[in-house]
């Protein structure tokens, strides 16, 4: 899969809702994104790993 960029839209308990650049929302386990992520954080996904984008 190709790399993707996301924005954290909402943290809901053990889950996070992310929106990609095309506007598609996905729900993933909170444990899969960096611990410092919060609503509004921009993330980059590549090689099955999420990293925070400055």
CATH architecture: Roll
The number of strands is: 5
Can you tell me the overall shape?
globular
Poorly predicted parts: none
Helix/strand class: mainly beta
Distance between the termini: 23 Å
CATH class: Mainly Beta
Strand numbers in spatial order across the main sheet: 3-2-1-4-5
Query: What is the C-alpha radius of gyration, as a whole number of Å?
Result: 10 Å
Task: Indicate the CATH topology.
Answer: SH3 type barrels
Largest sheet: 5 strands, antiparallel
Mean pLDDT figure? 97
Number of domains: 1
Percentage of β-strand residues: over 45%
Order of helices and strands: EEEEE
Share in helix: under 10%
Task: List the total number of helices.
Answer: 0
Compile the SSE list and pairings:
Layout: E1 4-12, E2 15-20, E3 25-29, E4 42-46, E5 49-52
Antiparallel strand pairs: 1-2, 1-4, 2-3, 4-5
Any key phrases for this structure?
mainly beta; 54 residues; 5-stranded antiparallel sheet; SH3 type barrels
Plain-language structure description:
- The structure is a single chain.
- The model has no long low-confidence stretch (mean pLDDT 97).
- This protein is mainly beta and 54 residues long.
- It has no helices and five strands.
- The chain has a single domain (4-52), classed as SH3 type barrels, CATH 2.30.30.
- It has strands at residues 4-12, 15-20, 25-29, 42-46, 49-52.
- The chain has a five-stranded antiparallel sheet with strand order 3-2-1-4-5, with no helix packed on it.
């Amino acid at each position: 899969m190709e790399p993707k960029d996301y924005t954290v839209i909402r943290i809901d308990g053990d889950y996070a809702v992310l929106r990609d650049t095309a506007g598609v929302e996905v729900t993933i386990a909170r444990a899969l994104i960096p611990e410092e992520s919060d609503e509004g954080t921009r993330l980059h996904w590549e090689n099955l790993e999420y990293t925070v984008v400055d």
